[in-house]
Amino acid sequence: MRILLLRTLPAAALLITGGLLPACSPLSKVLKNAQAGQEITVQPTVLESNGENVLFEVTAKVPASHLRKGAAYNLGLSYRYNNGLREDTVGRLTFISGEYLYDEEQKNKLVIRKQFSFPYSPQKSPGELLALPDARETKPNGKRVKGKQLTLARGIVTTSRLVVRQDTAITLLPETVDNNMSGTRVLPFFFDAGKAEIRNYLGTNVAALEDFIEANQHTDKVMIVAGHSPDSLDRHDARLADKRVRVLLNYYKKRVDTDSYLNKVSNIDFETEAYHRRWDLFLNKVQQSALKPAQVDSVLLLINDTPGSYATKEKSLHQLTFYDYIEQYIYPVMRFGTIAVRYTAPKRYDSEIYLLSKKIVEKQTEADALTPEELRYSATLTPLLAEKQRIYETSVATTGLWQAYHNLAVVLLQRSEKEVNPKVQKAYQRRAAVNFTLAAHRNPTAELFYRVGSAYHRAGDKLEALQNYDYAIKLGGPRPVLSKIFSDKAALEIEVGQLDDALRSLSYSSKTYQTIMNRALIYVLKGNYQGAANIYAEAIALRPQDPLLYYCLAVVAARQQNESAMAMHLRRAVQLDRAYANRAVEDLEFRDFAKGKQFLEALR
C-alpha cells in the first residue's frame, strides 16, 4: 500500500484565488497544520480496470489540530493521462463535520476512507491519480489556498482486458430461386408463467404473424398447439394449455377477419391440440440443452424410472444441483404455443432478375415484379456491399422475411469491418444487431439470437448482448451452438467484471482455446496464479505459436515475482510478435522489473 507523508509547504508557495496570502493567514495555517504528518493511501496501489470502470479506495489521515471554524481542508482527486494532455476530475475528500472519523490508532488524527471510480477507456492507460490539497473558507465565494499537487498512484493495469473471443464467421444465407412458393410457416409464441395472454416483448411473433396475414398468401390449413411447464405456476391450472390454444386461435381468426382480403376464416381448416403434462416435451428440451451428459441422464432417470405423480416428479427436480439451469433455461420455453400455417402461392418465372431488382430498388417498377426469393437472390449477383445492402433493405421493406433481415445484418457487419472510423463502425454493428433481432423474432432459434448478441457484443452494447445470449440459451439447440454461446457469454461476463458468472458459463462450454484462455484469466484476476499457469499450459498444446499465451504467462510470473520466468515467457511472446515489446513497456504488470536487465533483454 502506498503511503504519502507530506511535509509542511512554505507559506509563500500557497496560492489563493486572486493572489498570494500572507504567511500568517488563517487558511495558510489550516493547510500547513493539515499537511504536517498527513498520510494518504490508495488501494490498490496501482489502479486496475474492473469491467467498464476503474475502482479504488482512498484513505486520508490528517492531524485534528488543523480544524478551524469557518474553514475546511480538501483533497481534490483527478486522473491525468494522454501524456499529460488530459485530466479528468474524479472526486473530493473534505474534512468537515460528518465526513471524517477519529482514527482508532492515532487519536489525534482524523480519517476519511472513501471509494471512487471512473470509466475505463484504452487511452487512459498509462496515467496517474493526483491529489490537489487546498484549504478554503466554507462561506459562499470564500477564499482558497492551494497546496502542491501530489501523485497518489499510477494506472491502469489492463490484464482484465486480455479476454479471448473468437468470432464465429457470420456468412450470408445461401440464396436460390425457388419457383414453388408453397410451404408451411411455423411461428412459435411464449407465455409468462401461469398466464395465457399473448405478450408483446422478447420471445413473441405477433408482428411476424400480422405481417404474414397481411401478405395474403392463400391459406389452406392452420394448426395451433400449446403446452405448459411442469412448475407449480403453470400446472396449478389444468386448463392452462387449452386457454393458450384458445387465445392464439381467437387472435388468428380476428386478424384474418380484419387484415386479409384473400382468406376467410370459414375457408380455413383449423386444427388445435393442447399438450397436458407432457414429460416427453420436457425431456426433449433437456436433451437439447447445454447440460452435461451425466446431468441429462440423471433427469431422464428421475422422470422415466422414478414412481410418483407429475407434481411429485417435478418437486424431485428441485433436489438436483443444476435445477437452477432447468428453471432458468428450460421451463420458460415449455410455456409455449405454436401456429403453423400451410399456404400456397402462384409460380412465376423471370430471366432478368438482376435488372428487375435494380428497377425495384430505384423504384422504377413495383416490388412484386420479383418474388421475395428472386429479389434476395439478385444480391448475390453483385460484388458491391453497398448495392447488396440496398437490395436487402428493399427486400426487408417489401417482404419482411427473416432471411432478408438476416442477410442485411450480415452485409452491415461486413461493411463495419471495412470502416476505419470507430463511430461509423459501431453504427453499422448496431444496425446489424437490430436487423438480426428482427430476423430472430421471425425465426426464433438459438443461433439467430446468438447472432443478435454477438453483434451487440461487437458494438460494445454489453447489456443487450448479455440479454440475447441468455435468451438464445433458453431456446435450446444443438450442443455445439450452445457451447459457443456460453463461451462468448463468459467472455462478456469477464469484460463486465462478473467473474463468478463467467466461471459458471464456462462450465457449460466445451474445452476450446477460447475457454481455456478465459478460464486461466479468471484465475489470474482472482489471484490463483499457479492455477492460472497450469491452465495456460493446456493452451500451449492447442496453439504453441500464440504470442498472447506467452504474454499471459509472463504476467502470471510477474505477479509471482518470478523474474526469470517472466523474462523467458516475455522473450518468447516478443519473438512471435514484436508488438508485444511495446505493450510490455507500457504494461504496469511489469513495473517492478521495467529497469532490470532481464526485462530489457527480453524485449530485444
Instruction: Give me the Rg, rounded.
Output: 32 Å
Q: Termini, distance in Å?
A: 33 Å
User: How would a crystallographer describe the biggest sheet?
Assistant: 13 strands, mixed
Mean pLDDT: 88
What would you call the structural class? alpha+beta
The number of helices is 23
Helix content, binned percent: 40-55%
Q: What is the total tally of β strands? A: 17
Instruction: Return residue spans where pLDDT drops below 50 for at least 5 consecutive residues.
Output: 1-22
Percentage of residues in DSSP E strands: 15-25%
Principal-axis shape equals: elongated
Name the descriptors.
17 strands; disordered N terminus; 604 residues; four-stranded mixed sheet; 13-stranded mixed sheet; 23 helices; alpha+beta
What order do the helices and strands come in, and which of them pair?
Blueprint: E1 2-6, E2 15-16, E3 19-20, H1 26-35, E4 38-43, E5 46-50, E6 53-63, E7 71-81, E8 86-95, E9 101-102, E10 109-119, E11 127-137, E12 144-146, E13 150-157, E14 183-190, H2 206-214, E15 218-226, H3 232-235, H4 240-259, E16 269-274, H5 279-287, H6 293-305, H7 310-317, H8 323-334, E17 336-344, H9 353-361, H10 372-378, H11 385-399, H12 402-417, H13 422-442, H14 446-459, H15 462-475, H16 479-495, H17 499-506, H18 513-525, H19 529-542, H20 547-559, H21 563-576, H22 579-586, H23 597-602
Parallel strand pairs: 5-13, 15-16
Antiparallel strand pairs: 1-4, 2-3, 2-12, 4-6, 5-6, 6-10, 7-8, 7-11, 9-10, 11-12, 11-13, 14-17, 15-17
